[in-house]
Amino acid sequence: MIKLEFPILGVFRYLSRNRWQSKKRIKNLAIPLLFLSGLKDSYIPPAMMKQMHGLAVKSPLKEFVEFEDGTHNRTWANEGFYDSVASFMDRVENERKGAAIYDTAKVQSVSG
Predict the structure, then answer these.
(1) CA-to-CA separations, 89 to 1, 33, 76, 77, in angstroms, rounded
(2) What's the alpha-carbon Rg for the chain, to the nearest Å?
């Protein structure tokens, strides 16, 4: 993240205590994961979110939802955001009950 947000400080990234090992750690998460991506997010680009979605290989249930007008701090305000969260939570609950009615790599796009 330091290289992405502050390129000039990239040479000092070894001084940071946070190692941002997201790519390494997500591969071992065996929990349901919902990725909500704003296509206008300049802080965490949609390509990075898609990469994380693809790396979540042990997740029994994962979903990627794009929001056309979503920014880093305002994706929640896009139409369909809360419906996407509620739908995912329903799928998680159905899986917990053994209903296995989900597609493990569902991807959808929501435009406002």
Answers:
(1) 29, 10, 16, 19
(2) 16
| Per-residue pLDDT tens digits for 51-109 | 999 999 999 999 999 999 999 999 999 999 999 999 999 999 988 887 554 455 555 66
Asked if the model's pLDDT at residue 45 lies above 70, the reply is: yes
Q: What is the DSSP string of 24-63?
A: HHHTT--S-EEEEEETT-SSS-HHHHHHHHHH-TT-SSEE
Which domain does 80 fall in, by range? 2-110
Exposure string over 36-72, b if 16+ CB within 10 A, otherwise e: bbbbebeeebbebbeebbebbeebebbbbbbbeebee
